[in-house]
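Work Package 3 (structural annotation) set out to generate three-dimensional models for the target panel prioritized at the project kickoff. During this period the team completed the workflow that converts sequence records into discrete structure tokens, so that structures can be stored uniformly alongside our sequence database. As a representative example, we reproduce one entry of 390 residues exactly as it appears in the project archive.
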Amino acid sequence: MKAFLIVLDSVGIGEAPDAADYGDTGCATLQHTAEAVGGLDLPTFHRLGLGCIPGELQNTPIRGLPPHESPLASFGAMREVSQGKDTITGHWELAGLELNPGFHLFPEAEPTFPGEITRPFVEQTGRPILGNRHGSGTAIIEELGRASMEQGAFIVYTSADSVFQVAAHTEVIPLPELYAACEIARRLCDPFRVGRVIARPFTGSPGSFKRTQDRVDYAFKADEPTILEGLKDHGTAVYSVGKIEDIFARRGITEGFHTGGNPASMEQVSRLAEEKEKAFIFANFIDFDMLYGHRRDPEGYARCLVEADAWFAGFLPRLGEDDLLIITADHGNDPTYTGTDHTREYVPLLVYQPGKAPRSLGVRQGFYDVAQSLAAFFGVDPMPRGSSFI
């Protein structure tokens, strides 16, 4: 008896009703990606019923992915009710929480971080800082990387999300020192309710800097228990894959596997499917967001979907009749949209139980229906929010 919750990071399926409040009118990650490449060929997702979901929302179909007449999975969409469109907000809501008000966002002004954070950060780390503004991670590292190496300085920056990001060249500032600096920043950011502090190590030389896969996220700690803690406390092993353990500050997790990109995460999920008997496996497939959404690369985004589709084709036969697979997302990141930030969207919901008849799940008001459904599946105490689709 295993449940798999797989988050296709940023794979949204059309603008949410409040998208205009976030400056995201007209966004649609899956639909626009499909249009940009002349249609998507995703036979496994088609068979599961992904093409049925736009009809639930009465929005634009996904080119190349029509509704399936007899899908394998139950299908629907979910609307986020928390304030925000960032990674932590989406994942926490999936796990049963609601954030209203949302995390603190830093202003567009320069400098963006208040002195109450930066002054003690410089004092306690013993190093100067560069940046201190909004920016794209790859762009700001390319711009300031040489100076940071020459000065032995951290590059600190933020985005439209609630983040304090710290970049450093690994040959100048070793990983242990970067991580220690991020732990300092985490303590300094807590009074401001900043969602994440992110370590962003990079290598290379001016003109060819490259971020490594040694990124670590330091999350704000949730004010109440999530479904992860509810399951673990009732004897169900909880395994995280990808950045999940960072997002939940390692709370409620039996064992975490901090993989890099999608291939490593897929391999780990497959391994856990073979090795574990009773467990909850919570995985994030990050490449959609990290490599292609933020970089506004619809062709790369489409390739990533094709690769995921092929993996699911091999994964589905591993599931037994008492297993559960939930596929969804945490927010959108339309690779054809303006800017480089996440987009406020509905997320798809596919629920596959071998041998169980599929049905329409409609449009769910709150990602936390996932947590409530996991509680029902494992027979533990219900969560305070949400309605089960099990």
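The mean pLDDT is 96.
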